[in-house]
Amino acid sequence: MTVALGQSIPQCAIPATSGLTFSPSSATGKKLVLYFYPKDMTPGCTAESGEFRDHINAFTKANTLVVGVSRDSLKSHDNFRSKLGLPFELVADTEEKLCQIFGVMKMKNMYGKQVRGVERSTFLFDSSGKLVKEWRGLKVPGHVTEVLQAAQATK
Q: Using one digit for the tens of pLDDT, what is the confidence trace for 49-67?
């Protein structure tokens, strides 16, 4: 089942950095940005995560929690967060539970070979937990600004 506009995230509990567990109730009363990215320490993912970091004060002012999701391990996430100084949590979706819920696993071309991986995607939930906007197969430049503007315009 893939979450559709107007729906909430099904109940789940997935390990996150800082010894936390991500669940849909993690953002109760706040808007939530879940951004899915392919891999820690890669150029596009570093740029995207850095842009979310650089705009975190504006997201916080808009009552919006930002959470990154990839299939990397908690150890990899901890290193990535430390290296970039990320002020938000990263979810270690090693079993692809959230990836399946959001339908972000795709066949991609990498160096001429077909590989299964995460399609860079972002999802915005309103403060009642309903999905209000999604971006799939996106390009990094300008994306975070667009997500921030949508978060600021959402209740």
A: 999 999 999 999 999 999 9
The total of other beta-carbon atoms located within 10 Å of residue 145's CB is 12
Reading the chain (155 residues) residue by residue, the pLDDT tens digits are 689 999 999 989 999 999 999 998 889 899 999 999 999 999 999 999 999 999 999 999 999 999 999 999 999 999 999 999 999 999 999 999 999 999 999 988 877 888 889 999 999 999 999 999 999 989 999 999 999 999 999 98
- 50-58 long-range CB contacts below 8 Å, 24 or more apart? 50/84, 51/140, 51/143, 51/144, 51/145, 52/86, 52/88, 52/144, 53/84, 53/85, 53/86, 53/87, 53/88, 54/144, 55/144, 55/145, 55/148, 56/87, 56/88, 58/148, 58/152
The residue among 103, 116, 114, 147 whose CA lies nearest residue 38 is 116
Contacts of 116 (CB under 8 A, 6+ apart): 105, 106, 107, 108
pTM: 0.94
Catalytic (active-site) positions:
45
